[in-house]
Write a sequence for this structure.
C-alpha cells in the first residue's frame, strides 16, 4: 500500500510518500513547495518527481492521500475527504483562514489529479472528540454552543503520536494498542485499565499547545475554539479575556478587523518581546539585555506550567511529561525551566541528559517518579497510519 500525506498551507505544499501496511508504513520520499499559486501544477510536479526517483511507476499506484485538516464545524475524526468535508472546511474558514481554504482547494485538486486514490481527512480536532463535556464547553448561551463556539483542541496528530509512543516507552502496550485503534474504537464499551496512564504532552513550536492524555485519550487541551488560543504563540495572542477586544476597540479606536489582525499577527512572543516571533532570536535579545524578550520567555514557561499543573491535578497525578516539536525537542533551557522546582512532586530532571537535542531521549533522573521524555514529532506518520487504518476499517466494515 502506498499512501501520500499532503500538508497544505495558504501558499505551501509539503508531501511525504509512505509504503507498507497500516502497521509498518515507512517514508519513501518527501518534498515541498513554497509560494504556491496553482496546487494542481505542484501536485503534478510532485508526482513527476516520484516517478523520476522510481518511487512509483504510475500515479495509479498511490492508494490513498491523507490530509491533516485543521477543523470543521460539523465534522471531526478520520473520515472520507469528500464534498461534505470540503463544504465543512469552507464553512469554518474564518476560524482557520491560513489552512481551511488551502485544504478545501487541495482536496478538490487531488480528486482531479488522482481520481483512483482514496482521499482521507484526519481532523486535528479528532483526538479531542471524547473529552468530557465540561472541558469542551465555554460558559456561553446554548445558541453560541449550537453555532460551534466550543473548545476544540488542536495538534491532534502530534499529541496522538505522543500518546502512543510514550505508552510504549512506559511498557504500557494495553494503552498503546488502544491509541492505535482509537478512531475505529467502539466507544459504547468503557475502557478502564487496572492502572491508569497519565501523560501531559507539550507540543512547543511556532504554534504550541499542551494536552492532558488519560489512558491514551485526550482529556483536555490548552487550545480552544481556534488555534489562536492557549499558550502565547509565535505571533498569536494565546489566552485573552474576551472583554479586552471591545475595550481595545473603544480605547484605541480600532476596527474589529484591525483587532483580529493585531491579535493574530503582532501578538504572542512577538508582541511580548517586541523583537521577534522566533524563540532563537528572542534568546539572543535576552543576551543583549532586552527585558521584554526575557518577559516573553517567562510568560511562555509560566503558561506551560499552568496547564501542566492543571492536567496533573485533574488526572490525579502524572506518569510522564513529554516535550515535542521544534522548541520542545531542541530548547534545553525551556525544558529546564518548565521542570524546575518540581522535585517535591516527584519530577527530577537529569541536567546532562537534558542537553540532548532533536532526538528521542529520557531526560528525567533515574529515581524520578515522573518520567520526562523528549519525543520528536511525527505527524505525517500518524496521518499515514490513520489513513491506512481507515481504509482497512472501511473494507472490513
Amino acid at each position: 500500500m502506498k499512501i501520500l500525506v499532503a500538508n497544505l498551507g495558504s501558499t505551501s505544499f509539503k508531501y511525504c510518500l509512505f509504503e507498507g501496511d497500516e502497521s509498518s508504513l515507512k517514508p519513501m520520499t518527501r518534498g515541498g513547495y513554497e509560494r504556491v499559486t496553482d496546487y494542481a501544477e505542484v501536485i503534478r510536479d510532485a508526482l513527476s518527481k516520484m516517478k523520476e526517483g522510481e518511487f512509483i511507476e504510475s500515479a495509479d499506484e498511490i492508494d490513498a492521500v491523507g490530509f491533516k485538516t485543521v477543523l470543521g464545524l460539523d465534522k471531526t475524526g478520520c473520515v472520507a475527504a469528500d464534498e461534505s468535508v470540503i463544504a465543512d472546511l469552507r464553512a469554518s474558514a474564518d476560524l482557520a483562514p491560513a489552512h481551511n481554504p488551502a485544504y478545501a482547494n487541495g482536496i478538490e485538486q487531488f480528486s482531479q489529479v488522482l481520481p483512483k486514490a482514496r482521499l482521507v481527512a484526519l481532523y486535528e480536532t479528532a483526538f479531542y472528540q471524547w473529552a468530557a463535556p465540561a472541558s469542551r464547553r465555554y460558559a456561553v448561551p446554548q445558541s453560541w454552543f449550537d453555532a460551534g463556539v466550543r473548545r476544540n483542541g488542536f495538534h491532534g496528530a502530534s499529541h496522538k503520536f505522543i500518546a502512543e509512543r510514550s505508552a510504549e516507552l512506559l511498557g504500557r502496550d494495553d494503552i498503546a494498542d488502544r491509541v492505535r485503534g482509537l478512531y475505529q474504537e467502539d466507544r459504547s464499551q468503557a475502557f478502564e485499565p487496572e492502572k491508569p496512564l497519565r501523560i501531559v504532552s507539550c507540543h512547543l513550536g511556532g504554534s504550541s499547545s499542551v494536552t492532558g492524555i488519560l489512558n491514551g485519550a485526550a482529556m483536555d487541551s490548552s487550545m480552544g475554539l481556534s488555534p489562536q488560543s492557549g499558550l502565547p504563540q509565535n505571533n498569536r495572542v494565546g489566552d485573552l479575556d474576551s472583554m479586552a477586544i471591545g475595550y481595545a476597540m473603544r480605547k484605541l479606536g480600532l476596527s474589529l478587523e484591525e483587532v483580529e489582525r493585531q491579535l493574530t499577527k503582532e501578538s504572542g512572543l512577538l508582541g511580548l518581546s517586541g523583537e521577534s516571533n522566533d524563540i532563537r532570536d528572542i534568546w539572543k535579545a535576552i543576551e543583549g539585555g532586552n527585558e521584554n524578550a526575557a518577559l516573553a520567555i517567562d510568560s511562555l514557561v509560566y503558561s506551560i506550567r499552568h496547564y501542566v499543573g492543571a492536567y496533573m491535578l485533574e488526572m490525579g497525578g502524572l506518569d510522564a511529561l513529554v516535550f515535542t516539536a521544534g522548541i520542545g525537542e531542541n530548547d534545553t533551557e525551556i525544558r529546564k525551566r518548565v521542570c524546575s522546582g518540581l522535585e517535591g512532586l516527584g519530577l527530577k530532571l537529569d541536567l546532562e541528559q537534558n542537553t540532548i537535542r532533536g532526538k528521542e531521549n529520557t531526560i528525567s533522573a533515574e529515581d524520578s517518579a515522573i518520567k520526562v521524555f523528549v519525543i520528536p514529532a511525527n505527524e505525517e506518520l500518524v496521518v499515514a497510519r490513520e489513513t491506512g487504518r481507515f481504509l482497512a476499517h472501511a473494507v472490513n466494515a
Observations:
- The mean pLDDT is 92.
- The first strand starts at residue 2 and ends at 8.
- The CA atoms of residues 232 and 299 lie 8 Å apart.
- The two ends are 19 Å apart (CA to CA).
